[in-house]
Design brief:
The structure is a homodimer. The first copy, chain A, is mostly helical and about 200 residues long. Chain A has 10 helices and no strands. In chain A, helix 5 runs antiparallel to helix 7. Chain A starts with 17 loop residues before the first helix and ends with a helix. The structure holds a DNA duplex (30 and 30 nucleotides).
DNA sequence: GGTGTGACTATATTCTAAATTAGTCACTTG
DNA sequence: CAAGTGACTAATTTAGAATATAGTCACACC
C-alpha cells in the first residue's frame, strides 16, 4: 500500500487527489490487461472520463505512471516476503522462506499477470527507481535476517556483515530481479532449496 | 580446436574437407565483423569463390554454420578455464581461478568481439547444442575440482557430490551463461571474488 | 560417385508513407 | 486560483508493398 517510494519521477500536482488515484487504478487495469506499450495515455483518460491533458497535471510522463504501477507490483512482492519472514521461527528458516517466497511470487507474477511482470522486468532493465527501491528493500530484509542469525549464534560472525549480505544477495539476484528471473525459469523448482542449502552451509559458524 | 562437439545439427557431406574449413574460416571472419544476421550465406559463398548451393553440401543450414563458430568460441573459453585450473596448486585455488577466468574471458569476449558474443548469447538462449555442450564441459571441470578438493580434505564430504556441484553451478550460472552475463556486468568486478568466498565457505569441511 | 551450379520458391527483412501517440500550451470556465 | 480541455507538434509506430534471403532441386561436368 502506502505511497510511491521513489523520489525523482515522482509526479506533479497534489499528491493525494481522487483523480490521481483514479488514474493509477485505470492504469493498473489497462496495463495488466493490454500491457504497458499497448495502452495509450488517451485510453487512461477516456477510462476515467477526463482529457489526456489533465493526466499530465498529475504525472510527468507515461513512464511515471508505469513507475507507480510497477512500484505497487514490487511492493506486493516485498510484502509477501515480509510476511513469510515474520512467520518463520529461526533466522535459518527465515532465510529459506524468504528465498522461496521471492521465487514463488515472482514466478506467480510471471505466469498469472504476465503484462505486469513485463513492466517489472523492463523497470529492472532500465534501472527505474521502483526497481532500485525494491532491490534495496530486499537487501535490507536480508541484512536483518543475517544480523539476527548472527545474534542467535546460528550464523558465523567472522566475515563482515556487508560482505556476507552482498554475496548472498548476488546468489539470489537471478531470482530476485524480474529481468533475470525469466531466463532462470528452468531452475525455479530446485534453485531456492539448493541455493538455500549452499548459502546456509556457508553461513554456518 | 578439434571438432564440433555437438551431434544433431552436425552437418552434411564429408567431415574433413578443405571446403568445409574454408566455409568455417570465412564464417568466422564475417560473423565476427558484421554479425550473424548481417552476413548472408551468399556472402560466405562469394568469399570462398563458390556458389551458395555448394555451401549446403556441407551444412544443413545457416544456423549449423553459426553453431560451428559458436562452438569454437565457447571451446576457447573452456580451454582458458582448463589452463587456469591446471595451473592452480590447490583445489581451492583451482576453483577461484576457474570462476575468475570464466568471467574475465566472457567479459573480454563481450567487449572485444561483441558480434561473436552475441552469437554465443543467442546460442545459450535457444539451447543450441554448442551451448549445452559448453555448460556440460564447465560442469565436468567443476565436478573434478570439487572431487579433488574432497579427496585432498579441503572440502566437506557430507553433501552428495552431485548436489554440491549443482548448487555451485547455479551460483556461477549468471556469469557462465553468455545470455545472462550481459545483464550482470555491474557485478563482474566483485562477483567472482565475493561468490568464490561464499562458495568456499560453504565447501569448508 | 564427387564436384559444382543457375534457377526457383517461400519466407523474412527492409523501406517508406500514413497514421498514432506522448507531451505541451494557450486558453476557458466556475 | 483550481479544474479542465482542444488543438498542435515532434517523434514514434504501423501497414504493406518491394526487396532480399534461406534453402531446394534438377541437372551438368569430370
Amino acid at each position: 500500500m502506502s505511497e510511491i517510494a521513489s523520489s525523482s519521477p515522482h509526479s506533479r500536482g497534489p499528491v493525494d487527489h481522487s483523480v490521481r488515484e483514479q488514474i493509477v487504478e485505470a492504469a493498473g487495469e489497462h496495463f495488466s490487461q493490454y500491457g504497458y506499450e499497448k495502452t495509450t495515455v488517451s485510453d487512461l483518460a477516456k477510462a476515467i472520463g477526463f482529457s489526456k491533458a489533465y493526466i499530465y497535471k498529475f504525472f510527468d510522463s507515461k513512464q511515471a505512471i508505469g513507475e507507480a504501477i510497477c512500484s505497487k507490483t514490487l511492493t506486493s512482492i516485498v510484502e509477501a516476503v515480509e510476511v513469510a519472514v515474520a512467520g518463520a521461527p529461526t533466522p535459518t528458516e527465515k532465510f529459506r522462506r524468504m528465498f522461496k517466497t521471492l521465487v514463488s511470487t515472482g514466478v506467480g507474477l510471471f505466469f498469472n499477470d504476465r503484462k505486469l511482470y513485463d513492466i517489472a522486468a523492463h523497470s529492472a532493465g532500465e534501472g527505474w527507481p521502483s526497481a532500485r527501491t525494491y532491490a534495496q528493500r530486499i537487501r535490507e530484509i536480508l541484512t536483518e535476517v543475517v544480523r539476527q542469525g548472527r545474534e542467535a549464534g546460528e550464523f558465523e560472525r567472522k566475515t563482515p556483515l556487508d560482505e556476507t549480505v552482498h554475496a548472498v544477495f548476488l546468489v539470489m539476484q537471478p531470482y530476485i530481479n524480474p529481468l533475470l528471473l525469466q531466463y532462470n525459469l528452468d531452475h525455479v523448482e530446485d534453485a531456492p532449496v539448493q541455493l538455500s542449502n549452499l548459502v546456509l552451509r556457508s553461513l554456518a559458524p
